[in-house]
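Before a computer can learn anything about folding, someone has to put a protein's shape into writing. The three-dimensional part falls to structure tokens, numbers that each stand for a local backbone shape. The protein below has been through that process, and both of its lines are reproduced in full.
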Amino acid sequence: MKAIILGCGRLGAHLARRLDREGNEVVVIDRNAEAFARLSSDFRGRMVFGTGIDEDVLKRAGIENADVFIAVTNGDNTNAMASEIAKLVFKVPRVIARMYDPVREDTYHTLGMMETVCPTVIGSDKIHDMIVGNGSSKK
């Protein structure tokens, strides 16, 4: 599987290392070159410096042959816009975006534009389960 990850923060770097270890072809895009230091020294994937809403940067990353595009920058607007470009312009079969804002995440999810992950909702659900559910504090 060829995966392109936009954002080399903690989540993006962790996911990139994991997918790489599993034998996938991974490309990570970030506009901060220092962020690539989060990738391990044995990371076999590629690193592309640039903005993930720039079509030339996406082409350099090989988006035309990507199986999945994952946008996990710290900005909902960037993640949404880059994901829409991946889906609508480059026809990437699977597009996943992290959205911090639950309302925005619900909107994109309902429209079916992309698959979404909202850490705000996931965290809230987990904490709620811990205090009123089964009481488990395990991950």
The chain is about 40% helix and 20% strand. The chain has a mean pLDDT of 93. The first strand starts at residue 2 and ends at 6. The beta strands are 2-6, 25-30, 46-49, 68-71, 94-98, 115-117.
